[in-house]
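quick one: uridine-diphosphate-N-acetylglucosamine bound model?
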Amino acid sequence: MDSIIVTGNGPLKGQIPIAGAKNACLTLMPATLLSEEPLTLTNAPRLSDIKTMTTLLQSLGAEVSQLQDGQVIAMSSHDLDNHTAHYDIVRKMRASNLVLGPMLARLGQAIVSLPGGCAIGARPMDLHITALEALGAEIELKDGYLHAKAKGGGLKGAVHELRFASVGATENFVMAATLAKGTSVLKNAAREPEIVDLVRCLQKMGAQIDGEGTDTITIQGVDRLHGATHPVVTDRIELGTYMIAPAIAGGEVECLGGKLELVQAFAEKLDAAGISVEETDKGLKVARRNGRVRAVDVKTEVFPGFPTDLQAQMMALMCTAEGTATLDETIFENRFMHAPELSRMGAEIEVHGGQAKVHGVERLKGAPVMATDLRASVSLILAGLAAEGETRVSRVYHLDRGYENVVSKLRSVGAKIERVKEE
Ligand code: UD1
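yep, here:
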């Protein structure tokens, strides 16, 4: 198991290229199951989660190959010979559940293992199930697997309102409805940029969809979808993560490919904290020009609100802010596991249920810490950039799920960081 060692090294300067979005790629890949013709994704990120989705799609009979060092994913689902997504693969990654909607739509049946809980919360599947049932699926839970069948041989368009604007349930419903008979309307749909990206790709494949990016998405079912080539949207969470780097360590970093519209709510909080964020023709330039950052309160919300996937990184920044910041986590019930690790570095944090109060200290101190989940692990690296001495982050396999080349990206802007093999 590898560790990452970061040593606080003063201000950062330079440019960091931002990759294609993991969460967009993880929903675009299962879209291949909807068509007999090839689907090619460009600007794909090189991550272990993408490998897991590759293995899952291959297990269903899809052909998936990584070209150009993994930045292009060429897929073909001409012959699907299996409709069971096995526990061995699904347990590694919750996004595996995104094969359910497409398989039901194309094959009329699907058996998908329940993902189980994960470190940040229970993450049930009820919203996915009721959304697909609205389209005429019959779904039963047997031996830890969801057994889904389209009643009467095919899905039928329907109007459905989500109890909560779940990202995954929106994606499963939209993909399933593209091949359903008639019109479907999803109300209280999630509005995340990754959903807009999925819809853009489905439209290229011939799907008739309107309203993406709003809370009502209308889908007119078609008989078949064809092949397409689609570039994956920029990763707004990787973008936000690297925007924190100069905010916490000082200096100026230009995040190449970044766009303000992807991180508006987050950028507004950085601005309130005293960080300058400027849109350039290449991306977003972020700088901390003078003094300490100011404490700002944050509440995580569905898009366009402040993303839960940037809460841990924001907490790291607030650890050295002037004043006390209150962070409310409303999306996941157990997403403060980075708090005790940050406290090992001298941070002063009190957690009560879904709320954390961070009393800023002048300086963090390097310490051995442990990554507990994907975003928590990167928050510890960010904290290490601002700490005195050495921070050793262990269990960095979490990081490989969502960040490509984190060491070389941060090194290129002057950070002292290395990856080492642990005994
Ligand atoms: C996606 C993102 C994840 C992000 C999350 C929220 C991917 C691959 N992952 O996850 O990085 O943190 O959105 O922005 O895109 N819920 C239910 N029942 C359900 C489904 C969800 O109660 O059937 C709850 C979850 O437990 C959670 C909340 O809804 O508390 C949000 O989940 P959801 O929006 O579905 O997130 P994911 O799609 O799993």
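The mean pLDDT is 95.
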